[in-house]
Amino acid sequence: METPKRVYWHRNQWHYRPTLAERERGLKAWEPLGTDLGKARDKLRRLRLIEQEEDSTDTFVWLANWYMTKVAPDRLSKRTIGDRMGCLRQLFKTFANRKY
Questions:
Q1: For the segment 33-63, what is each residue's pLDDT rounded down to a tens digit?
Q2: Which has fewest Cβ within 10 Å: 21, 57, 68, 76?
């Protein structure tokens, strides 16, 4: 079984190492996934960090990540990026219980 991207064996269990954009969304530096790789994949799906079977490019999470990683760094100042990240954090907190 192939391991997903950014998943490492660390401190006797599988961990996910999030990107900076994901850290801004509230993930820990090392997100623990457990000792079984199958359960680790399930937890990543629940966290929406790996692709589901269907195309997930129409979700708000995908759009926010795409904007903050591909568009904003080239076109906005650091201060504006920080402000936008704050707005996104508020949106994620507000709609945390909804399926995007």
A1: 989 888 888 888 877 665 554 445 567 777 8
A2: 57
